[in-house]
Each structure stands twice: as structure tokens, then as C-alpha cells.
Amino acid sequence: MKKIIIIGAGAMGSAFAVPCLENQNEVTLVGTHLEDNLINNIQSNNNLHPALNIELSSKLKVEKFKKLKSILEEGVDIIVAGVSSVGIEWFVKQIASTYKKNLPIILLTKGLAVEENELITLSDKIKKLLKEKGHGDVNISAIKGPCLAAGLAYKMRTGTVIANPDIKETEKLKKIISTNYYSTEVSDDLTGIELSGAIKNIYSMLIGASEGLSNSKAPKEIQSKYYLNTSASLIHRSISEMVEFVSFYGGRADTVYGLAGLGDLYVSAIGGRNSLMGKYLGEGYLYKEAKEKFMKNITVEGAQLALEIGPKILQDLNSKHFPLMFSMLNTICENKKLEIKW
Predict the structure, then answer these.
(1) What pLDDT is attached to residue 341?
(2) CA–centroid distance for 132 within its chain
(3) Are 140 and 105 in contact (CB under 8 A)?
(4) How far apart are CA 25 and CA 216, in angstroms?
(5) Which of 136, 36, 32, 144 is nearest to 88 (CA)?
(6) What is the pLDDT of residue 296?
(7) Does the predicted model carry a pTM greater than 0.90?
């Protein structure tokens, strides 16, 4: 039995508690400083999570942010980052004072960052921030793959991949969290896994735009019935670009063809927030217009990532090799109409 703390009570962090509990671990879910109302809601409704629409196990300890420091001071075996990408610095600030040498951190968060004009993964960002706090030996693993939170919470059969440069560490974690419905592969390509898991959000917006891009002159009824030819073309080219992207920034090409790349792209492309935004962009809406009109209070991870890394990508890469990526970056960052150079 391991003592696991999950920081961030959103859908994915909360769903991840399900397989962790299944393995007889002691699991505590702690909300961020912005989630007190959410925690109150869960605690007062028999652990019913409003986003997942499911009652989480009564064995799960659910606590507010004010308890976080004392829980960490008491000692834990694994820290799980279930915050959004914009909360990574906040996450490090919370764990820095109690972090012990090589204490396992599991990163659920998907995203990338630009630091000192260099594109880096979130695990690299955490290491850098903890190093600034005096921690030289940091042990971070990332879990990525086609895992919709509600599906995991309902124990739908799910496959993900755990990545750490030390493959022995991934094997340890696999034994701690795997169940008969939550199967985990292992990889030592931490960089490739994180790159794949992040940029698939951008490409899923492109694939989501398939209907509108299929034939702008055809009626919407025809587009909605016969857009799959277009979708298939976009999926093929998206994977090709993802392979080049991941290879350029230091990951392995074969990683893209696995769960963190192709698998996760499939889940995101057939439904979800990124795909929905893509649908509006494919219909001719500008990004800011679509965001304000249809998705004002909804986080679109792919768009956030494009705004975060777009200027750096446009600087680093050759547009001839990444026509889809550049089209979407210009659409989001410059608020231009989505156009594909077929």
C-alpha cells in the first residue's frame, strides 16, 4: 500500500483516484486554492463529483487546499499533479518545501512551455523550478494516452503509457496503479510522450474542422454525411507532422504511433473540446469569435497551447514541413480564418 496524494480535484485527477484506490492504496484528493467550492460540493454529496457525475469511493479522502501543507508534512509516497498547465508553477510552490530526494511525482497534466526562448516539456519545467528551490534529485513520470476522465471513473477499459527515463521506475508505478480495466504500458521516452500528448490537442482541432473543410460549396447536410474522406486525409497528415515535430524536439518517432500519440489523437478528434472548437473554425468562424460565442467559459487545451508555444514554433520550424500546424497556429495566434493548403 502506498500513500498517494492527488493535487487538483478536476475531472482527470479525480478519475485517476479510482484505479489508485482499486490497488488498495491510501489516496487523498486535495483541491487547489480555487476549488474550495468544488470540494464542498463533493463532500456534501457523498463524494459525487459534479464533472464526472459519479460517486467516488467512500475510501477516497477529499480535502480542501488548507489541508495540503499538513498532508505533505506528514509524508507521502507519491505526489500526483492533476492541475492545469497554467498551474504548474503553483504546484511546484506547494510541494517544494516538503519534497524529498527522488520522491515520485506523477504528471497527468498535458502541455508544453517556452522558457528562455526554448521549448520544454512540463516535466522539465518542474525539474527546473524544483532545482531553483534546492532540489537536485527529482523523480518525475508522466502518464499520457487516450483516457477520457469519465470513462476511467466508470472503469471503462483504458490503456495509457507511463514514461520515465528510468524504466525501472515505470515498472514500479505500473504495479501500483494498474487494474484489469486500467492497463499501462511503459516507456523511457519521457520527452516523446509529453510532446505527443500535448500537440495532439492542436491536431485534434484540425481534424474536428473536417466537415467545414470537406467542401465549402456543399450544403451542411452533405458535409455532415460525407466528410470522412477529408477527415482521413487530415488524420494521415497530422500523424506525419507529429512524427516530425516530436523527432525535431528530441523525442522518438515510434512514440507517436503509440497510445500517447495516435491513440490520444483518436480520442480527442472524435469528440471533446478541441474537436468542437475545430468544428467552429471549419465552419468559418474566427477563433476569438467562436470562443466568445460558443465556448466562453470552456477551456480549449489546444488553443491555449497554440498561444503558449505558437511564436516559438513559427520561429523554429519550416512551414513546408508543417502546413497543418502552421495553419492552426496562424488561425489561433493571429485570429485568422482557417485555411488549408491542400
Answers:
(1) 84
(2) 25
(3) yes
(4) 54
(5) 32
(6) 93
(7) yes
Q: Are 141 and 120 in contact (CB under 8 A)?
A: no
pLDDT per residue as tens digits for the range 197-209: 999 999 999 999 9
To which residue does cell 527515463 refer?
Answer: 165
Contacts of 159 (CB under 8 A, 6+ apart): 145, 146, 183, 184, 185, 259, 263
Whose cell is 492542436? That residue is: 202
CB under 8 Å to 182, separation ≥6 — which residues?
A: 18, 19, 22, 152, 155, 158, 160
Helix axes 273-282, 190-208, angle to 10 degrees: 40
Give the pairing type, strands 48-49 and 54-55.
Answer: antiparallel
